[in-house]
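Hi there,

I know you've been waiting on this one. I reran it after we fixed the sequence typo, so this is the corrected version. Both the input and the resulting structure follow.
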Amino acid sequence: MATHVQSGSVQAPRGDPPALLSGRGQGRGRVRTRDLGPATLFIAPALLGFLVFFVWPALRGFYFSLTDWDLLGSASFVGAENYKALLNDTQFWHSLAITAEYVVINIGLQTLLALGLAVLLHRLTTSTVIRGIVLLPYLIPNVVVALMFLWMLDYSLGFGNQVIAWTGLDRVPFLGSEAWAIPTIAGINVWRHLGYTALLIFAGLQTVPKDVYEAAAIDGASEWRVFTRITLPLLRPVLAMVLVMTVIGSFQIFDTVAVTTEGGPADASKVVYFYIFEKAFAQFDFGYASAMAVVLMALLAAVTFVQLRLMRAGESDLA
């Protein structure tokens, strides 16, 4: 039997039927639910480590900052007394000022040199061997680097002062002078971290499209104009991340000071981390040391927030 269909009596569907759409949405929901288990297993080790080694110690530290505890007996609750004492502690503010001096010198030198080195690596070479050589100082432990420079910069026997003496100049007490201690420690850490910071910036340079540089070259832009008008603006998110990391790391300077100067001479290099360590493990005033650590954490959080806001780290000039 033949079936007759009149022209125009059948219309093509203009979209998926509601039932089909509903089924597709349910399918996506089932996929997401099915992926939740494996995703949780992958995240669990990192989350557990974060809770155990970061969140829990931070909460315990805040609790101890409200107590009087000598690490041996039981902790007695004193409320905000440690924070009140902190306001009148001239040594704490002195240590904070010394740390700020170190941060300014270290960040200024390290960022400028790393930026220049990253641009040179980006423009002049693609050799992974050279990148490995640049990163090599960062792979040496901090204590080893500090010991190496402690011997090299020794006033009497150090190679650095031997070279200075051979040129006819006076020897320099790099680590034994109040004026030279902090700049010298900053220079040591710049030498160690320069390659790592440069490679972070170099990775950011890889994200800048090559056609932008080609267009600038066609327009006859100079290298300096390309750097200031193209490279720096497009690197802003990466530079913001690098500055946040280096500032936080600089405020946490400890091992280089502990090995080279031990806070001297005359407390000229007693940075805040070394002062916290001294209070906690030399004077056994763990409650007061915890209060200083909490204040430092709050200060770093505020500095980080200001940095991210001023540098608009979440925005990019790439269209």
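Quick highlight: Confidence is low (pLDDT under 50) at residues 1-13.

Best,
R. S.
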